[in-house]
Amino acid sequence: MHEQASNPTGPATPPPGYEVDQATRLTSQPLELDPLLGATESPECGALVVFAGTVRLHNDGRRVTAINYSAYAPLAEKAMADIEQATLQRFDITHCEIRHRIGDLAIGDMSVVVVVRAVHRAAAFEAGRYAIDTVKHQVPIWKYETYADGSHAYVKGCELHAS
Amino acid sequence: MPAEMGIAVEHRVEVQCFGILEQICGGRTRDVAVTSLPASVADILERLALDVPAVRGYLAHTACAIGDQVVRRDAQLQDGEVLVLLPPVSGG
User: Fold this and answer.
1) What is the CATH number of the domain that holds B13?
2) Does B91 map to a domain?
3) Does the distance separating the beta carbons of B86 and A157 come in below 8 Å?
4) N or C: lower Cβ tally within 10 Å for chain A?
5) List of domains in chain A
6) pLDDT in tens, B7-66
7) Which of A15, A138, A159 sits opposite B28 (nearest CB)?
8) DSSP state of B33
9) CB-nearest partner of A14 from B23, B64, B71
10) What's this model's pTM, rounded to 2 decimal places?
């Protein structure tokens, strides 16, 4: 149910995604929280919600040994920027920042970070949940897992639609 | 020989495949031949499926993009544009 297709004889890692080191929201470098916390710091805010997605050891009952994220960078960057703006408009918050990593990640590495600041906590929690849920549905990024038995698979995902 | 004499002129369209489609097509970039440009996204997908039959079963769940816009199947691809195929996404 989990994976879309297995390829036991395929390469352990597909070709890397776009080189995006110049981009702002998509990066091949390890994600860092401190710059985001510093950039969004505000004395008017009483709430800070951080969601970080991390690579886990087991997925759908299978042991994961390696993971690779690839992205269609032009649309991924735009989609994340649009989600930030939509989250700011939908909730009573002051900041929303989203970052996603691509390339080869290790177990425990952060793959995605959402930082939300608001005057009060209720809006911050709701906005953070909305932002990460929307990222999973609307950003063209693909997760490719390698398992302990040597097989590989792209993880089943959500369909994109033309607006 | 000119096209008006009955010989179809082929144009090459660059298609970029991501996710599972990259694996199925054997690489991220693939050229697809079309008889005229602009060509509809639907026509290009049909030609791709003739070249790579294993793709056909995935197309119903695949979005298409030109640049940073997700487009419908009736969108027209102009000369020099790249068609990007986006199967279901799994970020996060």
Assistant:
1) 3.10.20.30
2) no
3) no
4) N
5) 22-155 (3.90.1170.40)
6) 667 899 999 999 999 999 999 999 999 999 999 999 999 999 999 999 999 999 999 999
7) A15
8) E
9) B23
10) 0.87
